[in-house]
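Tip: read the tokens left to right.
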């Protein structure tokens, strides 16, 4: 009756809470002025609902109640932050006359009222924590006396409950042992020390089975140390003999068959080998049950298991151990298949069985003996998360190479001291399974005198870890490993290390014995690097290749050959499921195991793929995936969790730009300057840490050559993406946290929810009413749109909006941005790839704006009011500089006259602009064009573009830009008209990145003089206009008085004819990347010699027409070491040769060797006109070369064969790739 009352109460409360949360109720509360009371009632009902849900489970689940309260506190914190931010922006520090204006007085009154409301709400939340006893301090004093008085009454029911649990555990274990199976099975029982010692039910289960004659022979052996083979066997033989005697006495038989053999073995005086042979021969014919109590090392088991062959009699060997590693290793890597399920909390025993796993709850609870069971619960949870992945039954499909590589490292004969090998990668990759297979490899037998495997538990306890190691080394009394391992070769596996402190606390206790080895598994690259100082000993485990993933999946699901003939309808459905698994063995095995026991139905498979999120959350057979992956999320520092969940904004398989993500994080306030470290560096560190923790993955494919090169430059990854399963987790968590709401097809639109980040998917087809009723726009901090744009996506209600990301959005028109200036909290605006031509003047009201990205748009002129944006740090414009051209005044005039009539007509009929591109500059679609947009484009923008010969992708910078004092990046702007803008750039002393086009003979000297004053400049891109290129300014650049642009310059891109190689490039000691295009340099050998002396040059890109071969048209690149005094290109890692042969030259040879380019790892080559054998020489002498990439498939077979033969002779075994 009580449970029914709770259920009814929950049902009523659910309906009431739904009503209170509805948009209609909120609107009424606002009209009546009772918003605070409405919010109070709503939050109270939420607490009551959580309270009743906990009561329904017959126990007080504090976690559910606390979680609801924490959600309310979090939302309150968001509201407080929004209020303070709004106050700072709207009120700020006004001048005296503004302070007294009616508008300012109203604003101040509104803010004051809001603060009072927030204060009252804070008091409500604080009082709620007391009412529901969420904080221990609020209830501990008042309940202490009551708890003491109730202890006696509670003790007796606790004892009775313990007895019931003990009986249940005994029955569970007996049923597990008695399970019908012809094979000899091993059951390994593990638990903490006191749990094993007090597991009386194990002995009782054994006695019951013995009495009931379930087995012909039974023996219970308490293992002693040191282990003696003969004593062990005689102990078992004696018990077998007693079994036969007892059975004969019960049956009153005089003749006892088999006793003579046992008696002979007991009395035998032959050597141990004869005894073993006779014993094995005897047990082969019997159905036996043997319990091995207190097994401590895997070496003991490896010897004992040989005495009990699999005779197909249904025999059982039960092992009890205090080391979880020993328990799992007893089953062997090929048989370790436990699935952990917990029946009760408190002290527990874990039963590891080859195909079935059963949790045996130890019946003596902490309440009975005064011990604390909290730590035991924690250990149980830890084992659950660790071994649910580690013990899964996926074979080493696709891991043979990794296994051999790690085995070879372990067997490294050249190692003089202690060797540490680290294996790292994301959860579920099978790190533990791979290392276990190496650990048990026959190749290592006899190599080490001592071996041990320890899984690092949380919370970390160094003394417990040392005890586990000592016990496996055969000593349970001492933890002095230095003495135990003195002058002994040892192999230790430290599985699942999470913190450097764990490693640092353990290492001082281990001697650095020569030829010994420690293997560490971890999910974090930083941990792997900390443990293994030798880079060659760090192994990054990758996801499975598609062919291996397919083999693993189909083998798990079908377990038969030629399944395609039997289930042809499932062939196409395997790929979408495998895509969701993303090469993760844990996911492949778990989903494959689930489908193996389901009907082979195409409909079922399709539903699983479409509703994978719900399946992961609700399907118990797939919960292991979520458990393992959530462990990685739970292990993130608090400041990284929001950054990770933020990625759920982006669509599936979306490749997110690192720079885009970092700028958005900064705008959202996720990162700030710390202890003098700039916010940009802090943000970059956070991005790299997420990659090192395998929470986000570097993009595997890209069509951009720049990305391929950048991936070889230190720690930079230009693009990243989420694993599909991690993305599902991030979506679920972000919804729970009210962080991200995805407006997409099929999303719920019943209530007006609160969210901070709104993303609109390309498949959402709703209208304005649905849009505004689904989401509380007043709380939204970021808006991201993918696909088609609709005018109502931007609303004045988004008063707290900080990020507006419309990259690659379709059908966005100029007038849609007209009122953007009202969103005064905006810090990040991206219109990249949008078909817009003009920015509204209201943009100047966005005084908080830090990033404006208008790359690949048609904006030719920036509004003059942009200079008012004093907080602007990143101004990104322009497109591909490859197509920058310049026309004469006559050509420009004719172009304007030719298009004049069409432009005038477009003011009345905007669709006239759509029928013909205007000099490759015009709107491809005018679907959302208003007449105002068309008129502005036709009468104001396009005539100026045609007359000034502006490239629509590279806007002009307005005068007065020197006021943008905080500008960090200016990329790419047009400087062809007027030197005043160049003088403004000269004053932007905070510039780190600068990209310009339109440099010619007239403005060249002023430009080079200006940038020599920018001492903080790190990246410079200069693109000339016209056929003269940069020749006009070459004389100025080569004068002795000219200083290089900046001693901090790290990246330099030059496009345009130079003729002579600039001498100042040789002074750029910090230069990391250099790209030359259309430079037509006259002396290739001199240029290579200068570049070869640059100490920091990592990436060298020599692109189209970068060199002039003179009359002979021959260009030879000599990267060889000609002088012993200096090393040519000492730091070069990437060499990019693209289209060298062209109008001015033919590439004749590229020579390597003699110690030059010692760090070169990647060569990128594209020149389809060249395929001569011998074009490349010395490739076999490059010690660090890893890849040689062709970007064309038209090379001759002889040329390809020549390159391949050189690579085959290289000791580093580089690969040849054709893209």
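Filled-in amino acids:
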């Amino acid at each position: 009756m009580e449970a029914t009352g709770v259920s009814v109460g929950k049902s009523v409360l659910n309906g009431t809470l739904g009503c209170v949360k509805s948009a209609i109720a909120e609107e009424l509360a606002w009209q009546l002025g009772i918003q605070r009371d409405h919010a109070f009632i709503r939050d109270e009902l939420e607490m009551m609902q959580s309270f009743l849900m906990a009561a329904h489970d017959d126990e007080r689940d504090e976690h559910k109640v606390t979680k609801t309260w924490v959600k309310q506190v979090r939302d309150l914190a968001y509201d407080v932050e929004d209020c303070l931010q709004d106050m700072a922006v709207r009120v700020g520090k006004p001048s005296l006359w503004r302070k007294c204006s009616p508008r300012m007085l109203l604003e101040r009154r509104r803010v004051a009222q809001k603060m009072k409301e927030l204060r009252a709400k804070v008091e409500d939340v604080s009082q709620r924590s007391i009412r529901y006893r969420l904080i221990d301090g609020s209830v501990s004093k008042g309940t202490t006396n009551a708890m003491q008085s109730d202890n006696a009454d509670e003790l007796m029911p606790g004892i009775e409950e313990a007895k019931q649990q003990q009986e249940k555990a005994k029955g569970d274990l007996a049923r597990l042992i008695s399970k019908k199976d012809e094979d000899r099975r091993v059951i390994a029982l593990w638990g903490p020390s006191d749990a094993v010692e007090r597991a009386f039910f194990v002995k009782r289960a054994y006695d019951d089975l013995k009495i009931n004659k379930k087995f012909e022979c039974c023996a219970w052996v308490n293992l002693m140390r040191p282990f003696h083979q003969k004593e062990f066997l005689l102990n078992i033989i004696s018990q077998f003999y007693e079994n036969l005697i007892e059975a004969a006495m019960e049956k009153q038989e005089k003749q006892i068959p088999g006793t003579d053999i046992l008696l002979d073995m007991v009395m035998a005086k032959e050597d141990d080998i004869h005894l073993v042979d006779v014993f094995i021969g005897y047990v082969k014919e019997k159905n036996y049950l043997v319990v091995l109590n207190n097994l401590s090392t895997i070496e003991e088991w490896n010897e004992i298991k040989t005495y009990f062959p699999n005779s197909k009699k249904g025999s059982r060997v039960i092992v009890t151990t205090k080391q979880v590693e020993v328990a799992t290793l007893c089953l062997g890597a090929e048989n370790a298949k436990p699935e952990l399920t917990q029946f009760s909390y408190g002290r527990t025993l874990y039963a590891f069985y080859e195909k079935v796993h059963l949790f045996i709850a130890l019946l003596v609870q902490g309440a009975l003996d005064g011990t604390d069971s909290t730590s035991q619960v924690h250990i149980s949870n830890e084992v659950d998360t660790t071994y649910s992945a580690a013990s899964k039954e996926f074979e080493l499909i696709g891991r043979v190479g990794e296994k051999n590589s790690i085995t070879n490292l372990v067997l490294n004969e050249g190692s003089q001291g202690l060797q540490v090998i680290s294996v790292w990668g994301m959860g579920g990759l099978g790190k533990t399974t791979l290392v276990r297979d190496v650990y048990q490899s026959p190749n290592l037998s006899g190599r080490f005198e001592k071996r041990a495997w320890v899984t690092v538990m949380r919370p970390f306890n160094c003394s417990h870890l040392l005890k586990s190691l000592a016990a496996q080394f055969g000593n349970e009394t001492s933890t002095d490993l230095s003495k135990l391992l003195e002058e002994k070769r040892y192999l230790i596996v430290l599985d699942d290390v999470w913190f450097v402190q764990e490693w640092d606390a353990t290492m001082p206790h281990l001697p650095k014995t020569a030829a010994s080895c420690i293997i560490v598994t971890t999910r974090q690259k930083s941990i792997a690097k900390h443990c293994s100082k030798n880079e060659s000993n760090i192994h990054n485990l990758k996801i499975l290749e598609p062919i291996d993933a397919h083999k693993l999946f189909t083998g798990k699901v079908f377990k038969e050959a030629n399944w395609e003939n039997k289930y042809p309808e499932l062939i196409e459905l395997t790929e979408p499921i495998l895509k969701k698994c993303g090469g993760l063995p844990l996911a492949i095995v778990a989903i494959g195991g689930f489908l193996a026991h389901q009907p082979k139905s195409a409909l079922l498979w399709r539903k699983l793929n479409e509703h994978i999120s719900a399946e992961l959350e609700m399907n118990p057979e797939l919960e292991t995936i979520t458990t393992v992956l959530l462990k990685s999320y739970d292990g993130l520092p608090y400041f990284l969790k929001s950054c990770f969940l933020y990625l759920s904004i982006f669509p599936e398989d979306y490749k997110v730009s690192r720079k885009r993500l970092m700028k958005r994080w900064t705008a959202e306030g996720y990162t700030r300057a710390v202890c003098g470290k700039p916010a940009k560096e802090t943000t970059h560190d956070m991005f790299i840490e997420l990659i090192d923790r395998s929470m986000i993955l570097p993009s595997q494919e890209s069509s951009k050559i720049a990305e391929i090169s950048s991936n070889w430059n230190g720690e930079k990854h230009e693009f990243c993406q989420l694993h599909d399963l991690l993305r599902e987790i991030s979506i679920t968590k972000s919804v729970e946290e009210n962080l991200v709401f995805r407006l997409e097809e099929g999303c719920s639109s019943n209530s007006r929810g609160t969210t901070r980040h709104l993303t609109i998917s390309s498949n959402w087809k709703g209208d304005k009413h649905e849009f505004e009723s689904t989401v509380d726009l007043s709380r939204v901090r970021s808006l991201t749109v993918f696909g088609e744009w609709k005018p109502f996506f931007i609303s004045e209600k988004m008063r707290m909006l900080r990020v507006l990301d419309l990259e690659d959005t379709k059908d966005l028109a100029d007038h849609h941005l007209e009122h953007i200036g009202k969103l005064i909290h905006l810090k990040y605006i991206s219109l990249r790839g949008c078909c817009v031509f003009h920015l509204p003047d209201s943009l100047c009201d966005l005084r908080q704006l830090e990033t404006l990205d208008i790359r690949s748009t048609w904006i030719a002129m920036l509004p003059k009011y942009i200079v008012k944006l004093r907080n602007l740090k990143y101004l990104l414009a322009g497109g591909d500089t490859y197509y920058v051209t310049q026309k004469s005044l006559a050509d420009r005039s004719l172009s304007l006259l030719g298009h004049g009539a069409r432009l005038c007509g477009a003011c009345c009929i905007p669709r006239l602009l759509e029928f013909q591109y205007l000099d490759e500059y015009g709107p491809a679609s005018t679907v959302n064009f208003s007449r105002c947009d068309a008129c502005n484009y036709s009468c104001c923008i396009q005539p100026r573009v045609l007359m000034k010969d502006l490239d629509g992708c590279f806007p002009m910078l307005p005068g007065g830009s020197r006021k943008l004092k905080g500008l960090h990046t200016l990329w790419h702007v047009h400087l062809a008209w007027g030197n005043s803008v160049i003088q403004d750039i000269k004053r932007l002393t905070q510039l780190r990145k600068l990209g310009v086009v339109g440099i010619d003979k007239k403005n060249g000297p002023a430009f080079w003089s200006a940038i020599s004053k920018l001492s903080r400049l790190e990246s410079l891109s200069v693109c000339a206009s016209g056929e003269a290129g940069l020749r006009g300014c070459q004389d100025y650049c080569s004068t002795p008085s000219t200083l290089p642009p900046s001693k901090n310059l790290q990246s330099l891109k030059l496009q345009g004819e130079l003729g002579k190689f600039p001498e100042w490039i040789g002074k750029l000691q910090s230069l990391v990347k250099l790209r030359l295009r259309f430079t037509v340099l006259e002396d290739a050998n001199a240029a290579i010699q200068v570049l070869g002396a640059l100490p920091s040059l990592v990436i060298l890109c020599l692109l189209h027409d970068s060199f002039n071969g003179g009359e002979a048209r021959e260009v030879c690149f000599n990267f060889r070491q000609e002088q012993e005094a200096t090393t040519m290109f000492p730091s070069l890692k990437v060499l990019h040769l693209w289209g060298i042969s062209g109008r001015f030259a033919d590439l004749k040879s590229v020579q390597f060797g003699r110690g030059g380019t010692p760090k070169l790892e990647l060569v990128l080559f594209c020149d389809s006109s060249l395929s001569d054998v011998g074009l490349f020489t010395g490739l076999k002498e490059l010690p660090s070369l890893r890849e040689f990439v062709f970007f064309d498939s038209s090379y001759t077979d002889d040329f390809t064969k020549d390159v391949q033969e050189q690579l085959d002779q290289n000791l580093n075994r580089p690969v040849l790739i054709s893209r």
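The two ends are 71 Å apart (CA to CA). Residues 647-736 form one domain.
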